[in-house]
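Problem 12. The chain below contains 152 residues. Write out its predicted structure in token notation.
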Amino acid sequence: MSILYYTLNNTVFTNFVFYSTASIVKLMGMAALTSMKRFSKDAFANPEDLRLARHHSTIVTLNDDDVERLRRNHLNDIENIVPFVLIGFFYVATNPNRDIAYWHFRIFFLSRIAHTICYQMPLPQPGRSLAFTVGYLTTISMALQVLASTIL
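Solution.
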């Protein structure tokens, strides 16, 4: 009989579902924050959006520092959270040690929160770089374990 890895009875999968969903909600939150910042500063990137501006003299702008900081943070989340979720699904199928898997998921999520705090405050480097690197290495660790389990 085959093992059912993708069920909420599997505590590794349940933990993965929680942290990947929390990461995705964080990612979606960055999109909402970027939109809110665009509205608050009348910093719209498309001509058709100017109708939503509070001031009729608003022009298209692609270089508002506050909007761009949020947008870059959001893009960084996309570049990191999507691979984490995809690789995480494969990782769960390797039947990893429960505690090690939990720490992979927690560390990744906390690194993304730390990265956002460092980016948006902004805090001096190397804080943001360290937060990014920790999350990135966590995903790489899971990927290497998936690759190793498929070779053996």
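Discussion. The two ends are 21 Å apart (CA to CA). Students who got a different answer should revisit the alignment rule from Section 12.3.
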